[in-house]
Amino acid sequence: MNPATAASPTAKSGSRTHTSVTCPFCSLLCDDLEVTNRGGSLGVTAGDCARARGGFERDYASLSPQMDGRDVSMDQAVAAAARLLRGARHPLYGGLGTDVAGMRGLLALADRTGGIVDHMLGDTMYRNILAMQDRGWIMTTMTEVRNRADVVIFANLDAVSDHPRFFERNIWNAESMFGLATKSRRIVYLGEGLNTRPGVSPDGRKPLHLRNEPERLGELIGALRALLAGQSLQARTVAGVKVAELTKLLGIMKGAKYGVIIWSPPRLPFASADLVVEAICDLVKELNAQTRFSGFALGGNEGILTAGAVCTWQSGYQLRTDFAAGYPEFDPTRNATARLLADDDVDLLLWTSTFLTGQTPPETKAPTVLLAPPLRGLDTRCAVYIPVGTPGVDHRGQMCRVDNVVSLPLHQVRESALPSVAGVCNLLLQSL
Ligand code: SF4
């Protein structure tokens, strides 16, 4: 058996089943999937998740590399992309939906060509990073949530919309360490338009649901902090929630042995959301004077945590770092994709996206090189298109999990002639 082909494959007539497969299609990186390969068509046969099925079971078209919409050979496409990179004075490496090796390759290119690196979800990531840089935070891990949390509060999110198996894996897990009876956990939702059904405990207990106006979450957190500090509120409602309900929630929080409040940066799509994250982090710190409480940030899909981790390991700085000066210059505002493109501050866009979304690069006057799997319906109208495989499907890889404490190996579950992003970056580096 070729160890590159998968975790524990078993073969039946004409099909091959891989067990303990790690799923790269959201940042939970569930590592218990069973994927069956029937002649190159994949099916998720255990660890059921619509999002995972959408990733593993998607069809590829027979797209070849392209230049300005014309089919060309891989050699010609790589040579054309290398020519563009050589001629660029200030290229942007955007998208960054790839694995550890792919991100290492893109960083090497950025370093060599004096480029900037930013992820397609960079704006959402900075809602967290700015809060962490300004105030610090007390955060926990997925393992701690699974094994210790007795009160879990979801702030403006239901978790399952973007991370479908969150409750199955981390809330209603049948087994836990330290004697925690998981079905007795207290679940609280803050916000509207949420799917709260997964919050009903296995024995039928309903979650507490406070329906605050989502964009006024900061006011609600501020009111909780005031009440915790012993202040009284003149208002009867805050952000659409009765103060009596807030007082009840605060009682639950103070009574927790290990409370966790979870938010997701993409679910805070309003101005100055970093200040709301800061307020949540401050509330967590203040609760720790009385009990044990932690924060937990969901989000991190499309490989953003992997891109950020690799950038930090290698340059010492987070994403939105510019290598044009010959050394890394970090500036989360100046080096944001939207700002760079709006101001025509870059003269080439190399866009990479291998997971579920973001395969259409943003509009720009600069020529674009696109690295993406050959998905059906993919818009390849750009200077150069190079088809690549999906990490964890077409080739092996490694990604960082949502809590940033582990990176997990990805396995190859089908034979593929598609190169990896890292492989294409290597070819480009050799051609520069
Ligand atoms: S929850 Fe996320 S990581 Fe887990 S199987 Fe679904 S898409 Fe994959």
Structure report:
With 432 residues, this protein is α/β, with parallel strands linked by helices. The chain has three domains: 9-56, no CATH class; 66-121 and 302-431, 3-Layer(aba) Sandwich (Rossmann fold), CATH 3.40.50; 126-297, Dimethylsulfoxide Reductase, domain 2 (3-Layer(aba) Sandwich). Helix content is 30%, strand content 21%. It contains twelve helices and 22 strands. The chain has helices spanning 50-56, 74-87, 100-113, 122-135, 142-148, 166-170, 217-228, 243-254, 273-287, 304-315, 337-342, 421-431, and strands at residues 9-12, 15-21, 33-38, 41-46, 66-67, 70-71, 91-97, 116-117, 151-155, 186-190, 208-210, 237-238, 241-242, 259-263, 293-297, 321-322, 329-330, 348-353, 368-372, 384-387, 397-400, 407-410. The strands form five sheets. A nine-stranded mixed sheet has the order 6-5-20-19-18-7-8-16-17. β5 and β6 (70-71) form a beta hairpin. α2 (74-87) packs across α12. The longest helix is centred in the middle third of the chain and has 15 residues, at 273-287. The chain is globular and about 70 Å long. The protein starts with 8 loop residues before the first strand and ends with a helix. The chain binds iron/sulfur cluster. Residues 23, 25-26, 28-30, 47, 49, 51-52, 163-165 line the site of iron/sulfur cluster.
